């Protein structure tokens, strides 16, 4: 009797577990399928868009009338940006697919610049046509390879989730996965076409490293000297607690990276091996309520800069974040603000300690500059602005323009309907180089209950 | 004769001064602290500055306790009107002048901010007419939310970033690098920003964070842990320009990294458990 009851209960439990397991499995499969479909959509859209991109570039090359050239270029720009988004949604990270992405960025930058240009006044140059021709070839190669991959994927019913699995395996060799190996082929075939250094239309976004750390000068220092400099910056009496060492070969400037940690307090500093300049300084500790105003804190920051031998610096922005003040300083030469050499200082508002200092940009970009006199006067520059903008403040400044050249501009702070704008007007041509709306405050979101 | 005129004048001046003192006496009860208030400041002094500027008709935006551009222009106009040096910094002279010509009802203003009401503070208009209670029509999104725990109803954000962008990045940083030293967290935040700038990666913060397989914390859901304040501070430092990673676009933990490819990247430096590389 008991035996049968137990058997009955167990049978019931077994059926229940089986049903539960089936449901779980079904749900898991549904979710996997959903993820797989998302990957599939991105991939098929990518191939379609590259194909369209190739056709459109071809059509542009064959086009004669300038009226339709600009819309065509804008269309290519849009396609390249969408294709770039598609790539970003595929599980390819940590897989070398950079060259194709760089190609998409290059074509996007190139077509954007030419699309917004007035092609009646300044038509495509011979050089630009050649470049477009080359981009057309590249697009063609990528298109062919991607269509091949697509064919394999569709023909063999391949899954992107398998790619994900294969990539997360410990196996160093993924060549048995068809998708991965074909993508490697795509990448190899696109090798070599991003090495276009001579092209000067600013279409190479990664090339803004012109004056590399010219600001770092002086004698080479050893690790002990670096630690002594760090100890002083951390406000420590000895170098005993400081650890760290030299930077690796990937570093854009040889550094000593040093840190220390003791009872709730920590510090970190990057010090150049040449000259022993502090490039980065960060301190972290618990802070009490602010006792110091931003104005007093600014003075502390300025004193600190003088100690770092940075004089002639002007404070251009101050902001309070709870119990710290962050200040932006730029050097001023002949009344011109040099924005490329910006320096940040962070001050604790409870006791005025320096909590952070960042001079990477300063040492990366700083060099002797010959600043020419502006061709336009301040009045002439402000006349070129939108009539609805009320000019409040004007300074001369040196900024990097779209093509990464340093350009002398009038930096004009203006208001329009209660909004504040920072407008850079070229001091020689009167052209608006850049306009930024200033949104430095935001209403606090009240936490929902 | 000449002498008498002078004396009369002096008397008159003294009387005026006295009158001025009497008139301003009730106002003196709550006035600015010693702080010189400048652009970017937050807190009680800023609330008072905005309220007084609004009372005098120079400031017509929200009294939120954050010294932003609107407050800056209002203060400069005020300084211009009263013949002071126009520097947009509220020092002793500007504060004294404001205190002498305006009234400040601290209790009223603070109550409105803490209750999250929409209000103005113009002189010459009854206070009750200048308040619109929260929840009574208007922005319905705030309904059911707690009262404001702070004395300001706004915060500073790096130009162009919302508190939500910062929160999302803080989530990623916390998921990826909690337990790492502070500079390690700033470095991870900086890598996210470096990737946004890099041509080989998506062009938005969310695009970079949610790129499949880019971050393990996103893949295993650790990104949805509640970040601590440190992660948020690290993100703000990174957005403001600090980059202890030295311009890195990749990093990995050598104990758990499996891809041989990542070992081939030129390494910049090690911070905590992470190796940062180009």
Please tag this protein with its features:
heterodimer, A: 449 residues, alpha+beta, TATA-Binding Protein, 3 domains, 42% helix, B: 278 residues, mainly alpha, Muramoyl-pentapeptide Carboxypeptidase, domain 1, Arc Repressor Mutant, subunit A, three-stranded antiparallel sheet, two-stranded antiparallel sheet, 11 helices, 6 strands, elongated, YpeB_N (chain A), coiled coil (chain A), PepSY (chain A), YpeB_PepSY1-2 (chain A), Spore germination protein (chain A)
Shape of chain B, please? Answer: elongated
Query: Major sheet of chain A, described briefly?
Result: 13 strands, mixed
**Order of SSEs of chain A, N→C?**
HHHHHHHEEEEHEEEEEHHEEEEE
Number of helices of chain A: 10
User: Would you tell me the structural class of the helices and strands of chain B?
Assistant: mainly alpha
The average pLDDT of chain B is 82
Please mark out the parts of chain B with pLDDT under 50 across 5 or more consecutive residues, or reply none.
20-29, 136-145
Structural category of chain A: alpha+beta
The CATH homologous superfamily of the largest domain in chain B: PGBD-like superfamily/PGBD
Number of helices of chain B: 11
Give me a quick take on this structure.
With 449 residues, chain A is of the alpha+beta class. Chain A has helices spanning 2-62, 69-88, 98-116, 126-155, 160-168, 178-189, 223-234, 294-307, 360-365, 378-383; strands spanning 243-246, 255-262, 265-272, 278-284, 313-321, 324-333, 336-338, 343-348, 354-358, 390-400, 406-416, 419-426, 432-437, 441-443. Chain A folds into 3 domains: 2-207, no CATH class; 223-365, 2-Layer Sandwich (TATA-Binding Protein); 378-437, Nuclear Transport Factor 2, Chain: A, CATH 3.10.450.
Descriptive account of the structure:
The complex is a heterodimer of chains A (449) and B (278). With 449 residues, chain A is α+β, with helices and mostly antiparallel strands. Chain A folds into three domains: 2-207, no CATH class; 223-365, TATA-Binding Protein; 378-437, Nuclear Transport Factor 2, Chain: A. In chain A, 42% of the residues lie in helices and 22% in strands. Chain A is built from ten helices and 14 strands. In chain A, helix 1 (2-62) runs antiparallel to helix 2 (69-88), helix 1 (2-62) packs antiparallel against helix 4 (126-155) and helix 4 (126-155) runs antiparallel to helix 6. The longest helix of chain A has 61 residues, at 2-62. The two termini of chain A are 57 Å apart. Chain B is mainly alpha-helical and 278 residues long. Chain B folds into two domains: 20-142, Muramoyl-pentapeptide Carboxypeptidase, domain 1, CATH 1.10.101; 163-277, Cell wall hydrolase SleB, domain 1 (Arc Repressor Mutant, subunit A), CATH 1.10.10. In chain B, 44% of the residues lie in helices and 7% in strands. A three-stranded antiparallel sheet of chain B has the order 4-6-5, covered by helices on one side. A two-stranded antiparallel sheet of chain B has the order 1-2. In chain B, strand 5 (267-271) and strand 6 form a beta hairpin. In chain B, helix 6 packs across helix 7 and helix 7 packs across helix 10 (229-239). Chain B is elongated, with a radius of gyration of 27 Å. Chain B starts with a helix and ends with a strand. The interface between A and B is large, with 81 and 86 residues. Strand 14 (441-443) of chain A pairs antiparallel with strand 3 of chain B, so a sheet runs across the interface. Chain B: Residues 121-157 are annotated as: Disordered. Chain B: Keywords: Cell wall biogenesis/degradation, Germination, Hydrolase, Signal, Sporulation.
């Amino acid at each position: 009797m008991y035996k049968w009851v137990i058997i009955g209960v167990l049978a019931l439990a077994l059926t229940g577990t089986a049903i539960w397991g089936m449901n779980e499995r079904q749900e898991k499969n549904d979710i996997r399928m959903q993820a797989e479909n998302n990957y599939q959509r991105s991939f098929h859209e990518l191939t379609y868009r590259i194909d369209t991109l190739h056709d459109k570039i071809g059509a542009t090359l064959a086009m004669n009338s300038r009226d339709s050239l600009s819309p065509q270029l804008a269309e290519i720009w849009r396609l390249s940006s969408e294709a770039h988004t598609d790539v970003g949604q595929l599980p390819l990270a940590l897989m070398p697919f950079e060259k194709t992405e760089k190609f998409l960025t290059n074509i996007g930058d190139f077509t954007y610049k030419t699309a917004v240009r007035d092609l009646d006044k300044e038509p495509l140059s011979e050089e630009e046509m050649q470049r477009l021709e080359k981009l057309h070839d590249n697009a063609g190669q990528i298109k062919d390879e991607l269509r091949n991959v697509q064919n394999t994927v569709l023909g063999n019913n391949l899954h992107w989730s398998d790619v994900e699995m294969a990539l997360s395996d410990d196996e160093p060799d993924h060549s048995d996965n068809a998708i991965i190996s074909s993508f490697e082929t795509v990448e190899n075939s696109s090798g070599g076409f991003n090495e276009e250094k001579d092209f000067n239309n600013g279409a190479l976004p990664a090339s803004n490293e012109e004056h590399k750390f010219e600001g770092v000068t002086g004698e080479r220092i050893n690790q002990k000297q670096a630690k002594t400099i760090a100890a002083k910056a951390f406000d420590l009496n000895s170098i005993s607690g400081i650890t760290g060492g030299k930077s690796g070969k990937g570093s854009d400037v040889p550094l000593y990276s040093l840190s220390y940690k003791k009872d709730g307090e920590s510090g970190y500093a990057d010090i150049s091996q040449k000259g022993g300049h502090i490039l980065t300084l960060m301190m972290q500790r618990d802070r009490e309520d602010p006792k110091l105003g931003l104005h007093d804190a600014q003075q502390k920051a300025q004193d600190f800069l003088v100690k770092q031998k940075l004089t002639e610096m002007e404070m251009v922005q101050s902001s309070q974040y709870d119990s710290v003040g962050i200040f932006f300083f730029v050097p001023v030469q002949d009344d011109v603000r040099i924005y490329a050499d910006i320096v940040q200082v962070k001050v604790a508002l409870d006791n005025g300690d320096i909590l952070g200092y960042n001079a990477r940009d300063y040492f990366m970009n700083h060099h002797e500059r010959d600043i020419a006199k502006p061709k336009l006067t301040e009045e002439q520059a402000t006349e070129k602005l939108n009539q609805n903008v009320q000019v409040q403040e004007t300074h001369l400044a040196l900024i990097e323009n779209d093509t990464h050249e340093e350009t002398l501009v009038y930096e004009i702070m203006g208001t329009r309907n209660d909004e504040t704008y920072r407008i850079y007007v070229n001091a020689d041509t009167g052209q608006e180089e850049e306009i930024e709306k200033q949104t430095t405050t935001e209403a606090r979101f009240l936490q929902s209950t | 004769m000449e002498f008498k005129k002078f004396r009369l004048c002096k008397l008159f001046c003294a009387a005026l001064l006295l009158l001025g003192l009497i008139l301003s006496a009730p106002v003196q009860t709550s006035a600015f602290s010693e702080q010189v208030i400048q652009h970017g400041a937050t807190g009680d002094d800023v609330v008072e500055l905005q309220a007084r500027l609004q009372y005098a008709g120079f400031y017509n935006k929200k009294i939120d306790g954050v010294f932003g551009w609107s407050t800056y222009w209002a203060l400069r106009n005020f300084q211009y009107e009263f013949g002071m040096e126009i520097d947009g910094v509220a020092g002793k002279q500007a504060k004294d002048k404001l205190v002498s010509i305006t009234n400040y009802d601290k209790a009223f203003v603070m109550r409105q901010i803490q209750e999250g009401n929409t209000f103005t503070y113009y002189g010459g208009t009854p206070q009750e007419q200048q308040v619109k209670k929260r929840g009574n029509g208007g922005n319905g999104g705030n309904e059911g939310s707690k009262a404001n725990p702070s004395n300001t109803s706004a915060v500073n954000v790096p130009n162009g970033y919302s508190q939500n962008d910062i929160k999302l990045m803080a989530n990623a940083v916390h998921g990826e690098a909690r337990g790492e030293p502070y500079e390690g967290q700033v470095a991870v935040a900086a890598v996210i920003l470096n990737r946004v700038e890099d041509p080989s990666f998506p062009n938005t913060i969310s695009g970079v964070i949610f790129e499949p397989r880019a971050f393990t914390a996103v893949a295993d859901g650790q990104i949805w842990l509640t970040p601590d304040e440190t992660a948020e501070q690290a993100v703000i430092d990174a957005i403001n320009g600090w980059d202890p990673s030295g311009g890195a676009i990749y990093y990995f933990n050598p104990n758990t990294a499996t891809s041989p490819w990542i070992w081939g990247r030129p390494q910049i430096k090690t911070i905590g458990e992470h190796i940062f590389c180009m």
